[in-house]
Amino acid sequence: MPVVNWLKKNLVVIAGLVTLAFLLLPNVVVTVFSFNKPKGRFNYEWQEFSTDAWKDPCGVADMCGSLSLSLQIALWATVGATVLGTMIAFALVRYRFRARGVVNSLIFLPMAMPEVVMAASLLTLFLNLGAQLGFWTILIAHIMFCLSFVVVAVKARVMSMDPRLEEAARDLYAGPVQTFVRVTLPIAAPGIAAGALLAFALSFDDFIITNFNAGSTVTFPMFVWGSAQRGTPVQINVVGTAMFLIAVVLVLASMAIGNRRGKRKA
Amino acid sequence: MATLTEAPPPLTPTAAETKPPRRRGRLTPYLLLLPGLLWLFVFFALPMIYQASTSVQTGSLEEGYKVTWHFATYWNALSEYWPQFLRSLAYAASATVLCLLLGYPLAYLIAFRAGRWKNLVMILVIAPFFTSFLIRTLAWKTILADGGPVVGALNSLHVLDVTSWLGWTSGDRVLATPLAVVCGLTYNFLPFMILPLYTSLERIDGRLHEAAGDLYAKPWTTFRKVTFPLSMPGVVSGTLLTFIPASGDYVNAELLGSTDTRMIGNVIQTQFLRILDYPTAAALSFILMAGILIMVTVYIRRSGTEDLV
C-alpha cells in the first residue's frame, strides 16, 4: 500500500500544515473582508465586493488618530525598554554583583504574570497616587512589560559573543569606549534589534494593560475593542491587512539583504 | 526575531557561559542595573504591594478607603466567583493541551522536515503577530458564524451533537459557547507554544536520530524515547507561556463567548473598570496571582527545569 506508507511517512508534515492553516485562516478572513461592503454596522457577513474602505482608510472617525497614538507610544516604549533592557542584559552577562537572584526574579516575574494582574495592580498604584490616566501612564506601563523581553533577547546574543574579540581590541590599544562602540555594540546589534522589534510589536498590540491604565485615551487596540461593541468598520480590516503585508515585505527584504551579505562574505 | 533562526549554541559551554569575569569598576554593574530595576520596582513590584493593601481596605468611592484588614473580602470574593476561577483554569488548561497537540507537529515540521521552506514557514508563524490580535480574534466571529460553512460541516458530521452533549456547544451554535472561547484562546496563544518547542527541537543533534535508527528503533519509538524527552524544556516553557496568559485572559471570553463563559479576567475587569469595587477586584487579582505563582513553581520543580530566564 504505497498511499498508506506515504501518509505514514508524511503524517507529521500534514498535521503541521493543518496547524499552519489554522494560524493563517483569520488573516485570510481579515484580508477578504477588507473588500466587503457590509449592510449593517458589523462586518461579519459577506455582502459584496468593494474597494471603498481601501480608497478611504481614514474615513472612520477617530480611527487614524488612535493609530498614530499607538505608533507614538510603541516608538517611545521601544526606545525606553531597549535602552533600559540592554543595560541590564550587559550587567547580567558581563559582571558579578550581589543579589543576582532578586534581580533575576524581578526580570522573570513580569513575564510569568497574567497581564490582567499587572494591569490591575498598576491601576491601584496610579489611583493611590492620584495620577492622571492617559498617554504617560500607558507609556510607563508599556516600558515596564516590554523591558523583560528585551533583556532576554539581548542577553541571549551577548552570552554567545566571543569575549576574545574584545580582548583582541584591547590588546590593539583600543580604549574601553572605543572597544564598546567599535566591537561590542556591532556584535550585540542583532540581539538589540530583535529585542526592540519585539518591544515594538508587544506595545503596539497591547490591549489588556492599556485597557486598565488608559483612562479615556484611545489607542488602536482600544478602538478595535470599542468597535466590537458599537459596530466594526471595514477600515479596521484594511489596517490589519496593510500591517500584515508591510511586516511580511519587511521580513522578506531583510532576509534578502542578509542572504546577499552572506554570499559576499563567502 | 533574528535570534530565532540562528544556529543552535554549541554543546560545550563557551567561556561566556561560565562565571562572568571580575572586572575593574565595581560600580559599573550597579549603574547599569539601576535605571531598569528601579522602573520594574516602582511600576511592577510596588503596585503588587498597593494591590495587596487595597484588597484589605473598606470604604466607598465617596468617603475614601482605609486599611481595616478586612480579610472577609477574600472569602466573599471566592465564594461568589469560584465558578469563574474554575472555568478559567479549565479553559486555559484545555487551550494549553490543544496548543501542544497542534503546535508540536508544526514545530517538528519547521525543525526537521521543512528543508528550504524553513524560513518561509517560520515567517508565516510569526507574521500574524503583526496584525492586531483583536482584529484576528474578531475574524473568528465570521469563521464560526451561525449557519456558516464551519458550523455546517461540523453539524453534518454530527460533531456538534457530541459537543452539545458534553456541554461545550449548545444546539446548532458554536459562537457564544465554551468551544468558541477555547478555540480563540488556542488560536491566540499557539505561537507562544510553537516558538519554544521549535527552539528546543532545533538543538537536538540529528545524529541521535540516526543512532536510534541504527539501533532498530521504529520512528515512533525514536520519537518517544529520544526526540520528545529532549524537547521537554520547550514543552515546559511552551505550556507556561500558553497557560499563564490564557488563565487571565478576558478578550476571548468577551468577544467569542457569552455571559455563561465569563472567565476570572472578565470579573476583574468589570469590578475594576465598571463597578469600581476596588477591594473585591484587588482581592480577585491577588488570588489569581497567588494561584498562578504556586502552580508555576510546583510545575517547574516537578519538571526539573529551573533555568527559564
Mean pLDDT reading of chain B: 87
**Category from helices, strands and their pairing of chain A:** mainly alpha
Tell me, briefly, the overall form of chain B: globular
CATH topology of the domain at 61-232 in chain A, by name, is MetI-like fold
Kindly state the percentage of residues in helix of chain B.
Answer: 55-70%
Please outline what is shown here.
The complex is a heterodimer of chains A (266) and B (309). Chain A is 77% helix and 0% strand. Chain A is mainly α.
What key attributes describe this structure?
heterodimer; A: 266 residues; mainly alpha; MetI-like fold; 77% helix; globular; B: 309 residues; two-stranded antiparallel ribbon; disordered N terminus; transmembrane helix (chain B); cell membrane (chain B)
Describe what this molecule looks like in 3D.
The complex is a heterodimer of chains A (266) and B (309). With 266 residues, chain A is mainly alpha-helical. Chain A has helices spanning 2-32, 52-55, 63-94, 100-108, 115-129, 135-159, 163-171, 176-205, 208-213, 220-230, 234-265. Chain A is globular and about 70 Å long. The model of chain A has no long low-confidence stretch (mean pLDDT 91). Chain B has 309 residues and is mainly α. Chain B has one domain (83-303): MetI-like (MetI-like fold), CATH 1.10.3720.10. Chain B has a two-stranded antiparallel sheet with strand order 1-2. Classes of the chains: A mainly alpha (266), B mainly alpha (309). The interface between A and B is large, with 102 and 95 residues. Chain B: Residues 1-22 are annotated as: Disordered. Chain B: Its main location: membrane. Chain B: Keywords: Cell membrane, Membrane, Transmembrane, Transmembrane helix, Transport. Chain B: InterPro entries: MetI-like, MetI-like_sf.
